[in-house]
Amino acid sequence: MTKLGFLRLSYEKQDTLLKLLILSMAAVLSFSTRLFSVLRFESVIHEFDPYFNYRTTRFLTEEGFYKFHNWFDDRAWYPLGRIIGGTIYPGLMITSAALYHVLHFFHITIDIRNVCVFLAPLFSSFTAIVTYHFTKELKDAGAGLLAAAMIAVVPGYISRSVAGSYDNEGIAIFCMLLTYYMWIKAVKTGSIYWSSMCALAYFYMVSSWGGYVFLINLIPLHVLVLMLTGRFSHRIYVAYCTVYCLGTVLSMQISFVGFQPVQSSEHMAAFGVFGLCQIHAFVDYLRSKLNTQQFEVLFKSVISLVGIILLSVGAVLMLTGKISPWTGRFYSLLDPSYAKNNIPIIASVSEHQPTTWSSYYFDLQLLVFMFPVGLYYCFNNLSDATIFIIMYGVTSMYFSAVMVRLMLVLAPVMCILSGIGVSQVLTTYMKNLDVSRPDKKSKKQQDSTYPIKNEVASGMILVMAFFLITYTFHSTWVTSEAYSSPSIVLSARGGDGSRIIFDDFREAYYWLRHNTPESSAWTARGPPSCSTASCTRCATIASARFTPKPSVLLVLTEFVTLRLATRTLSWMCWRKRILQSTGLSGYTRSKTLTTVASQERKTQNSKTHPLSGTHSTEHLRPPYHDLRRKREDFFILLL
Q1: At residue 352, what are phi and psi to the nearest 5 degrees?
Q2: 610: domain range?
Q3: Could you give the dihedral angle defined by the CA atoms of residues 330, 334, 336 and 342, in that order, rounded to the nearest 10 degrees?
Q4: Is 377:389 a contact under the CB 8 Å cutoff?
Q5: Is residue 391 part of a domain?
Q6: 553 compared with 425, residue with greater pLDDT
Q7: Which segment, 21-30, 41-50, 280-289, 548-557, is predicted with the most confidence on average?
Q8: Residue 35 has what DSSP assignment?
Q9: How many Å apart are CA 71 and CA 557, to the nearest integer?
Q10: 218 lies in a domain?
Q11: Does any domain span residue 592?
């Protein structure tokens, strides 16, 4: 027994207590390091898209799941509207609403907005815990603690999980690592229990983020590699068949996913590997019942027949449209030049651009150098689990190079493999430290074999400690300066170094909420306008921007007639301004439009309007309040 303060604990209990303490510190660090924006700008939703998520979550908590699932949102993309239940991944909203109701059940009164703001930091703490258990299955507890500490502060993950970043990625990384952890447990044990837990974790992942497609292709790829390397066994068969069957059925319960798991090309790899598992199991059964010569003849015949049938059925299904082709985003992952040459709208998004070398160091720092060390260790100690993490690391590295937003998928595996690498380096050199032992060799013998063993070991440990400290400082600085600034609240440094806050966006949205009718349609900044200003978002202007010039006038005039005919502003004046602002005066117009334009010319006076650059049409406007006039002029600018 060993004394520890006033406690008397065994070595095993001390070890467990120390691990629990370090893991708790990593979880607290993961939560607290994401609160810079709250301390600096108050509790506020950051980006424009999270405002829509917040509005749907608020509706869910107030109205319940049934109304939420059947909710038709007439504020989004007017005049089409949006069916919310079938067009979103509801996992984020359901998680927030469940947490909100649990807290209120225990009489912890908190607003749903604050739940949304702090949800991502909370799940980042859970991610650190899951990372520890996942890495522990790959190597040991020491590597798990290092990986948990690294993922707590890695900028590549913090960029999507700071307080106020209420988006799907905030909980998706936790779901992904939880699914991987359950998969490794299922592979090691061959247990239906762990396989079912993996399927449930996969269902949570599907309900939370569209990136589940990466997961459902990585696990089948792992099984295929195990087949090719001769490592396929009954454990793998039970694990994969349970995960695929149960996970596919559960994923189809998400309305936004529907029948895609059995129809889309992105899911066909999982189905194909499932079929290979059945063939492999059947072949093993035949091998045990037949002699070698009979088995070879039957095997070649069956494989040829089954291959021809599968290829024929697959070709027919693809030609008839029963299996949908890959989307442009997935094609661009396999062929980086595909989107640029065929779908420019995808290539124009900044998140879809290739990653620069500087971005890797900025978002990962030390992990860039320790990642190969972890890979080297896994290659030297091949097992079913290490093969999986090698494939995860290599594939995510490639995809992150093609698309910068997938740095989020790369960051966790970088932390895991770097934790394994650092743990192995420290373990190797800690053994070389000079420790007094009964069987200690003489000084002469030590010098002849390893003259400066103790000094080299001490130096390497100090170097690793220095690198880990610099990694922590770098990650904290990046989090504070680069990833903790909301788009809706701006800041700048004054001449004296003080921070100046610009809250003009929210003030403008609040002004719109209190000074415009709720039926107003706004074309710019739609998501925050819907949530903050209680206005309707319009889809017509967005579609007009992609309409050929000769047809854009008809689209816009239809929009103006629909939305503004009941208002006091003359619709003829609006048509003229649209015509001149789009530069269509030289195009041939229909007789009706020509007649309207001639009527407008007759009513013009000699004054020039400062906004449109044409003669004023003030006499066409009936008297109305100055506030309404300001709103209409503001709408002209937006249009």
Answers
A1: -95, 5
A2: 539-638
A3: -50
A4: no
A5: no
A6: 425
A7: 21-30
A8: -
A9: 30
A10: yes
A11: yes
Q: Distance (Å, rounded) from C-alpha 75 to C-alpha 81?
A: 7
pLDDT, averaged across the chain: 79
pLDDT at position 621: 40
Give the type of residue at 187.
V
Token readout for 238 is: 């039970």
Sequence-separated (6 or more) residues with CB below 8 Å from residue 362: 155, 478, 482
Residues 444 and 424: beta-carbon distance below 8 Å: no
Greater model confidence, 284 or 159: 159
Q: Is the Cβ–Cβ distance between 132 and 380 less than 8 Å?
A: no
The contacts of residue 425 (CB under 8 Å, 6+ apart) are: 373, 460, 464
Which one, of 200, 216, 234, 174, lies nearest residue 384 by Cα? 234
**Residues 529-552 pLDDT 10s:** 565 555 565 555 555 555 665 665
The DSSP code sequence of 380-394 is HT--HHHHHHHHHHH
CB 148 within 8 A of CB 129: yes
Cα–Cα distance between 520 and 509 in angstroms, integer? Answer: 13
Structure tokens that stand for 579 in this block:
């015509």
Q: What is the mean pLDDT of residues 465-480?
A: 94
Domains in the chain, number: 2
pLDDT in tens, 99-150: 999 999 999 999 999 999 999 999 999 999 999 999 999 999 999 999 999 9
Neighbours of 194 (CB within 10 A): 22
Does 180 score more than 90 pLDDT? yes
- Report the SS3 class of residue 547: coil
3-state DSSP assignment of residue 326: coil
Nearest to 26 by CA among 169, 162, 180, 147: 147
Task: Please work out, in degrees rounded to the nearest 5, the angle formed at the alpha carbon of residue 614 by the alpha carbons of 611 and 617.
Answer: 85
Tell me the C-alpha distance between 273 and 279, whole Å: 10
Token pair in block for residue 34 = 């994401």
CB burial of 164-184 (b: ≥16 within 10 Å; e: otherwise) equals bbbbbbbbbbbbbbbbbbbbb
Q: Are 613 and 580 in contact (CB under 8 A)?
A: yes
Residue 490 pairs with which residues in a beta bridge?
A: 502
Count Cα atoms within 13 angstroms, Cβ side, for 365.
20
Looking at 309, 325, 341, the residue that finishes a domain is 325
Q: Which residue type sits at 439?
A: D
User: What's the half-sphere exposure (Cβ side, CA atoms, 13 Å) at 25?
Assistant: 11
Burial 387-416, CB ≥16 within 10 A → b, else e: bbbbbbbebbbebbbbbbbbbbbbbbbbbb
Query: What is the rounded distance in angstroms from the CA atom of residue 408 to the CA atom of residue 412?
Result: 8
Helix H or strand E segment including 234: helix 234-251
Residue 172 exposure: Cα atoms within 13 Å on the Cβ side? 23
Q: DSSP of 459-491, one letter per residue?
A: HHHHHHHHHHHHHHHHHHHHHHHTSS--SSSEE
Comparing CA positions, the residue from 195, 181, 182, 175 lying closest to residue 246 is: 195
Any idea how long the chain is? 639
587 domain residue, yes or no: yes
Domain termination site, one of 310, 325, 340: 325
Please state, in angstroms and rounded to a whole number, the distance separating the CA atoms of residues 226 and 320: 34
DSSP 111: -
With a CB cutoff of 8 Å and minimum separation 6, the contacts of 272 are 220
Residue 471: how many other CB atoms lie within 10 Å: 21
Q: Which residue has the tokens 């937006």?
A: 638
